[in-house]
Amino acid sequence: MSDLSEDLERCLCDCACDVRAAARAKTSCTEGRVRETKRVLLGERQRLLDELHASQRGIDAIDHILHRVSCECVPASQRGTDAPRHDGEVSAHG
User: What pTM did the predictor assign?
Assistant: First the structure.
């Protein structure tokens, strides 16, 4: 069975945790300071969650624009003669 403090350090490094925070967690774990160890782990967990939520907001924004492009970005050849021009005016072919 592997050492908990080494597993903890490996876990935090795999999560792209700050090297100092990983060392602090490993040291506090080795010294039996459970609350400090948990504090570091929970802080890193929150950081990862914040990154996840930011990424999700970005994905949602891109999905929204993709939908709008599909609905609103119609080629000129498919537009009717009364379609708005780029300047907002309606063309008057007749």
Answer: 0.68
